[in-house]
Amino acid sequence: MRRSAIWVRVGTASQGWTGRLVPGGAERIHVHFPFEKGPSHAALGSRLSLGLAQPGMSVAVRDDATLIRVDRRREDALECVLEMDHPEWLLAYLPDAVIDRRTDKRRWIRAAPEADSNVLVPVILPEAPPSAQRLVGRLLDGSAGGVGLAFPMVAEPRLCRTETMRATVPMPGLKGVGEWVCQVRYRALLDDGRVRYGLQFVSDGVAVHPPGPQLESLWDCDECGTEGLLAQTHVHCPQCGAPARGPDRHPSWRELATPDVHPMCGTDVDCPSCGVVHGELARFCGHCGDVLPSEPRAAKKGWVRTR
């Protein structure tokens, strides 16, 4: 990889990282972080401060930028793409910054699936709280090595903090039907406001089945009378939005329920505030308590359900 002699300091209000400018276009700059992790867990669309300098300069060029892309495909470094607020300053004060105007020829190895483009892929974020682990992505493309999924922007604050996720691939021709452990290799903003995640299958193509059902204790909502809510999955009542109040109780044999079979859980409705998915019987988000849309996702234009 060619790198210029220009050092770049990228920071937030509480953190900062130092990298080197990668030759490329002027409006969106590529920064290579060989020594530090860089903004690997910063949300796409975040506003970052930017400082650029090269040997012999007494004052750095300072600007603000938007995080557009985070690339982890190199094992020894991280590369980010930033969109500057004033790209003309780069050419005015650092004429050597743009020394290679060729477009980036690298591409994630992918193939368009031979199926309807509106395939939904349920994913689970193991590192997130139980009430926020379930999301649904839209399949963009895929291959035997990985898949590209699109998620709503509201889910990015949780997605950006995860490095692995479990995806249920519903296409036998692409990667045998089943749940697969995936590693996040890159993520980027899409022009339509969604975020794209490039996932690589791990375990060398071996399907990973989750362990046996994980039972949760139950709680009953005092506000609306709904009984048998899951203590970890339902932080708020899915019927009225009231926050959970103890004490929890252990389920009886007739009440044994897991998130896979609970009537309030499912993949029918997305929360507009946090992106967590729910069953069609839920009226409020069990994670944040916000009101859920009355129209299931299956009825929305451009989305179809698959089995």
Please give a structural write-up.
- The chain is mainly beta and 307 residues long.
- The chain folds into three domains: 7-93, Thrombin, subunit H; 120-205, predicted glycosyltransferase like domains (Thrombin, subunit H, Beta Barrel); 214-307, no CATH class.
- It contains three helices and 16 strands.
- Strands 1, 2, 3, 4, 5, 6, 7, 8, 9, 10, 11 and 12 form a twelve-stranded antiparallel beta sheet that branches. A two-stranded antiparallel sheet has the order 13-14.
- Strand 15 and strand 16 form a beta hairpin.
- Mean pLDDT is 77; it is low at 99-116, 204-213 and 299-307.
Q: Which features would summarize this protein structure in a list?
A:
307 residues; disordered C terminus; two-stranded antiparallel ribbon; 16 strands; mainly beta; twelve-stranded antiparallel β-sheet; single chain; 3 helices; Thrombin, subunit H; 3 domains; 5% helix
| Helix-strand topology string | EEEEEEHEEEHEHEEEEEE
- Using only CA atoms, what is the Rg? 22 Å
The proportion of residues forming helix, as a percent range, comes to under 10%
Mean pLDDT reading: 77
Task: Indicate the structural class.
Answer: mainly beta
Number of strands: 16
Uncertain parts: 99-116, 204-213, 299-307
- Sheet-strand content, in percent, reads 25-35%
Tell me about the largest β-sheet: 12 strands, antiparallel
Q: What is the 3D shape? A: elongated
Q: What is the count of structural domains?
A: 3
Distance between the termini: 43 Å
User: How many alpha or pi helices?
Assistant: 3
Offer a concise description of the structure:
This protein is mainly beta and 307 residues long. The protein is built from three helices and 16 strands.
